[in-house]
Specification:
- Helix content is about 40%, strand content about 20%.
- The chain is of the alpha+beta class.
């Protein structure tokens, strides 16, 4: 599995933290050791539970994006709106 990790050098120490889980972090004198320790910590967390992904529906107007993409009525409505807009333009 691949995880995104933030690695920072602070006060002579390398701090590695799991992106999205700020409580999963380690500090060490070397970059490699910090990454190794974080990898071990992540492995322990996975061993204790189940790693799943969850789909969350967008809220508000964004939830309508793409919903009517295949609706033939939408194309007719758009065509009608474009014709009306074109007819209203000064010539």
């Amino acid at each position: 599995m691949t995880f995104t990790v933030l690695l920072k050098r602070e006060n002579g120490q390398f701090t590695a933290s799991l992106v999205g889980a700020p409580d999963v972090r380690v500090s060490s004198d070397t970059r490699d050791h910090a990454l190794s320790e974080l990898s071990d910590k992540i492995a322990l967390r996975i061993a204790d539970g189940e790693l799943v992904t969850v789909e969350v529906e967008p809220a508000g107007i964004l939830s309508l994006a793409g919903r009517f993409a295949d609706d033939p009525t939408l194309r007719a409505i758009c065509d009608e709106a474009y014709l009306a807009r074109e007819a209203d333009r000064p010539r």
